[in-house]
From TrEMBL, chain A:
Gene Ontology cellular component annotations, sorted alphabetically: extracellular exosome; plasma membrane
Parts of the chain that traverse the membrane: 149-173
Organism placement in taxonomy: Eukaryota, Metazoa, Chordata, Craniata, Vertebrata
InterPro entries: Collectrin, Collectrin_dom
Protein name per the record: Collectrin-like domain-containing protein
Classification via PANTHER family: COLLECTRIN
Native organism: Oncorhynchus tshawytscha (Chinook salmon)
Signal peptide from the UniProt entry: 1-18
Chief site of localization: membrane
GO biological process assignments: positive regulation of amino acid transport
Membrane protein topology class: Single-pass type I membrane protein
Entry superkingdom: Eukaryota
Cellular localisation: Cell membrane
Gene coding for it: LOC112251097
Ranges where the Collectrin-like domain occurs: 26-220
Keywords: Cell membrane, Glycoprotein, Membrane, Phosphoprotein, Signal, Transmembrane, Transmembrane helix
Length: 220, 618
């Protein structure tokens, strides 16, 4: 009888004890904040007790992975202070002694190690599944060997240099051809006249202003 | 195609010509339409209210801008020389005006191409995913973001640190930033390749550089009008305020004046390559009207995009507050939205005022974000780049925007450099043996080396000095002397005869009244008012100092004395040639010696040039 009463007390007491271990601002606990609608929008799933169980399972997995001990179980992850945010607190108890909590630092190491797996389990990211107090490691920047701007610069300056050289060479060749053509004066004048027609502008040569004013007087 | 320096059978040199009228017009339009049309005019519209600013702007255009423009194009076309030759011809005592034009063009080319180099740097960096100014870089041990970036914004950090690597003040010069030197070299190379054969290559280049900005502005217009917040931004264009503030008139007059790029000598040079029988009156009106129309047209997408940026900032400010409230009160995710934020805030503040005040929520006011205005490099490299990050397909918009700025800057550089090269050619300072390509290369190289000062750490501060002191008062003085020279010394009668010869009809009463009375008066008033305003503002500059107490605000520092002396020199040395040359000629004249230019002194209509040349032949 006495044994039976003790057994009953233990059954009642254990969860009560567990509740004492896990509370708001627990010294060895972490607050978790989940933003489902921000992450998934229309595809957001409902956060219910099954999801909480899933969280316990993933945390147990994280602890197993870090400590290489296969004794962690869902009962070792105690959750409390659930809100509709969704946010809650959790503490981790030792598999050998359910009254002893795993220190904060060890829990942090376990979470850091498996952060990527935990995020993916819930289809969330570092920003939408937050462990308050555990800062996500920032992604290493992609540093290409050659900065991209240097490549664009190389293309542009290459084209410009080629253009300059081409234009200079063609100018030089044109000058040589002109020098050859200058030996025959008549041909030169013809060239000029042809150019005048080609341009379409009325080339008067040097405008003789002496005659312009005469035109004005004749109007009177 | 005619080439410079070609000897024709008559023994004289043939002046290069434009291939067709379109090239000439596009070059002038490209020269007038510059980066200022995009980043100065919208800013002025914003701070004064669009409707209010347009009235003094258009009045200044009609009574000051167009007469000056017509005058420059006419004298260049008639006298067929660059600025120095033209002013020597009009009056030897005012030959200094041409020299001043050339010196000022030289100084402006220095810093203007540095701005083009900055645009090129941003253009090169726009071909990346993600854009480098969209996020802060990590610090050296990858534990967090660079502190300077976190305290200001990624856009500011990229501009001040990654681009300029700016020093905290002007005394610290810093070192040459190699990436800036590289960009500057690219800019000068591109300018050189366009100048390599004079107006032959310029004429080809302007088909692209003068038209491309309009294409990009139209694309931006269509895109910007579909962005959220565009409407709020556009309201600025249609606000109407009373024109009480005299500052509006001053800003309008100076804006139209600097926008049209008169007094550079470039327009004189361009029109000197024209056929003398060209109708320059139509050209002047066309160039002036297109320049102003471009400014107004550019304002629309700029304002729309600024409105979009303000809207984005407002929404992210609200979202920050929403997140703080949601986290603190453990409210269900996304229950508080931008729409119902006000009600939630009121109810929470009513029930838990102390908790809410502990959260230190930011006040998010859309009007405050809209009022954040910027002009100049701040608009292009800080405000606009921030807006571009939030637009879908940011790389495309960034590339388009910077190519547009590059085209605008390059086509203006054509005019700037032309104002330097043509007078040098006309002064016959180029040795006969030197081909033009080499001479142009030497000038470009010289300008590049001198502009390296703007690639130092303190380069931006020096550029601001050049921009404020060289690019302002000297032009007003030169333009004033230009109009006095033509209207009073050359004589309005003689000028009307020349115009009748060129265009076929005498200038009507409007032009004459403007040249004689209105424009000189307006210029004089603007000059005096501008100098008065400048004298009243203390000579200070805004320095970017990460160690400043109020960082990220810029620290306002006074100019050191030696720098202020340089500012005064920069304003006065270009225009000092005007009195100097006058005195020199006076002395020469009084001592009874004839100067070399006596032949060009008086363009006597009865002097028959043909016979003069024939006499010179052996």
């Amino acid at each position: 009888m006495l044994v039976w009463i003790l057994f009953l007390l233990c059954q009642v007491g254990a969860p009560a004890l567990a509740q004492d271990l896990c509370q708001r601002d627990a010294p060895n606990g972490y607050k978790v904040r989940i933003s489902l609608k921000t992450a998934l929008g229309e595809d957001a799933y409902e956060w219910n007790q099954s999801e909480m169980f899933f969280f316990q399972a993933t945390m147990a997995f994280a602890m197993r992975r870090h400590f290489q001990m296969e004794t962690y179980n869902v009962d070792n992850i105690i959750l409390c202070v659930q809100t509709s945010r969704v946010s809650f607190w959790f503490v981790v108890t030792s598999p050998d002694n359910t009254t002893m909590l795993i220190p904060k630092a060890d829990v942090e190491k376990a979470v850091r190690m498996s952060r990527h797996r935990i995020n993916n389990a819930f289809l969330l990211s570092d920003r939408t599944l937050e462990f308050l107090g555990i800062y996500p490691t920032l992604a290493a920047p992609v540093n290409p060997d050659t900065p991209p701007w240097l490549i664009v610069f190389g293309v542009v300056i290459g084209a410009v240099c080629v253009g300059i050289i081409a234009l200079l060479i063609s100018s030089l060749l044109q000058k040589r051809r002109k020098e050859k053509g200058m030996t025959e004066d008549g041909q030169d004048e013809e060239d000029m006249q042809v150019k005048g027609v080609e341009n379409g502008i009325n080339l008067d040569g040097t405008y003789n202003r002496g005659f312009t004013d005469d035109d004005r007087f004749t109007k009177l | 195609m005619p080439e410079e320096g070609m000897e024709d059978s008559k023994g004289g040199e043939e002046r290069p010509k434009w291939n067709n009228k379109a090239e000439y017009l596009l070059t002038c339009i490209g020269f007038a339409v510059g980066v200022g049309n995009v980043w100065r005019f919208p800013y002025l519209c914003q701070i004064y209210g669009g409707g209010a600013f347009l009235i003094p702007y258009l009045i200044a255009l009609v009574f000051q801008g167009l007469p000056l423009l017509y005058l420059e194009l006419a004298i260049g076309q008639r006298l067929r020389m660059g600025s120095i030759g033209v002013w020597n011809s009009i009056s030897p005592y005012l030959g200094g005006v041409g020299v001043a034009s050339m010196v000022v063009s030289f100084c402006v080319s220095l810093f203007y191409n540095t701005i083009v180099a900055w645009v090129l740097w941003y253009l090169f960096n726009s071909f990346q995913e993600p854009l480098p100014w969209s996020q802060c870089p990590l610090n050296h041990n990858n534990t967090g973001y660079v502190e300077e970036c976190v305290e200001s914004t990624p856009v500011n950090y990229f501009w001040y640190r990654k681009t300029l690597n700016i020093t905290p003040n002007m005394e610290t010069s810093g070192s040459l930033q190699w990436w800036m030197v590289v960009s500057l070299a690219t800019a000068w190379s591109i300018v050189y390749i366009c100048f390599i054969r004079g107006i032959e290559t310029i004429g080809k280049a302007v088909y692209v550089t003068a038209t491309f900005p309009y294409l990009v502005l139209t694309i931006f217009l269509v895109r910007a009008l579909t962005l959220p917040g565009a409407y709020e931004g556009l309201i600025y264009l249609f606000t109407w305020e009373i024109l009480k503030n005299p500052q509006v008139w001053l800003d309008a007059a100076t804006q139209i004046f600097f926008s049209l790029s008169v007094a550079f000598g470039g327009l004189i040079s361009f029109s000197s390559y024209n056929n003398q029988k060209n109708n320059c009156e139509k050209d002047a009106v066309l160039v002036g009207v297109i320049n102003s129309a471009t400014s107004i047209y550019a304002s629309i997408p700029i304002f729309a995009i600024l409105g979009f940026k303000a809207h984005t900032n407002y929404v992210s400010c609200l979202n920050g507050n929403i997140l703080a409230l949601t986290n603190d009160f453990d409210i269900s995710d996304m229950n508080i939205t931008v729409e119902n934020y006000e009600q939630w805030f009121d109810s929470l503040n009513g029930t838990h005022p102390s908790r809410v005040s502990d959260l230190n929520l930011k006040t998010c006011d859309l009007q405050t974000f809209l009022d954040q205005s910027a002009s100049g490099t701040g608009l292009a490299f800080i405000v606009f780049t921030e807006a571009v990050i939030s637009m879908p397909g940011s790389q495309v918009w960034a590339v388009l925007f910077f190519i547009m700025l590059f085209s605008l800057g390059l086509s203006s550089m054509f005019g700037n450099l032309e104002g330097v090269l043509t007078p040098l050619h006309d002064l016959k300072l180029v040795p006969k043996w030197m081909p033009n390509e080499l001479f142009t290369a030497i000038i470009c190289l010289l300008l590049f080396l001198m502009a390296l000062i703007f690639c130092l750490g303190s380069g931006n501060y020096w550029l601001e000095i050049f921009n404020s002191y060289v690019g302002s008062v000297p032009f007003l003085i030169i333009a004033f002397f230009e109009i006095i020279a033509v209207a009073y010394i050359y004589g309005i009668g003689r000028f009307s005869d020349d115009l009748e010869f060129m265009t076929g009809h005498r200038p009507n009463i409007f032009w004459k009244v403007c040249w004689l009375v209105i424009s000189p008066l307006m210029l004089f008033v603007v000059l005096v008012a501008y100098v008065a305003v400048q004298a009243q503002t203390p000579p200070t500059y805004a320095a970017w100092n990460p160690d400043y107490v109020n960082f990220p605000d810029t620290e306002v520092l006074p100019y050191p004395d030696w720098v202020f002396a340089i500012c005064v020199l920069l304003s006065s040395v270009p225009v000092i040639s005007i009195p100097l040359v006058a005195i020199y000629r006076l002395i020469c004249c009084m001592s009874g010696r004839h100067s070399k230019d006596s032949l060009h002194n008086d363009p006597n209509p009865y002097a028959n040039e043909d016979y003069v040349v024939e006499r010179a032949r052996p």
